[in-house]
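> Could you send the Chaperone NapD prediction when you get a chance?

Sure thing. Input:
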Amino acid sequence: MNISSIVIQTKPLHVKEIIAICEASDFCDYHFHDEQTGKIIVTIEGADLDEEMAKMKKIEQIPHVICADMMMAYSEDELDVEREKLAQSPSVPDILNDETVALKDIVYKGDLKKKIN
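Output:
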């Protein structure tokens, strides 16, 4: 399941009209707006990125929408895949994947200044 927040930009005079469309739709959930700036916040959900992008395109096609930008995204499936990659990576010390070790007990002895330069 993917969940993403979208900021819709429109002219202030069209804010209420677009909110009404979003509230009546089956492709997004309305949460907040600023009528003075013409910004509207909605969320979309999808089984995968393709479904989310299809919903975002529907938002972009609403009359008077200037743009719709994805601001935050959460994906359960991708998170699990990335966690598994980290767990299998030889560059990650075993202690970091050991659930019996408390984070407070891990002592860092490296030097980030050398990594940044």
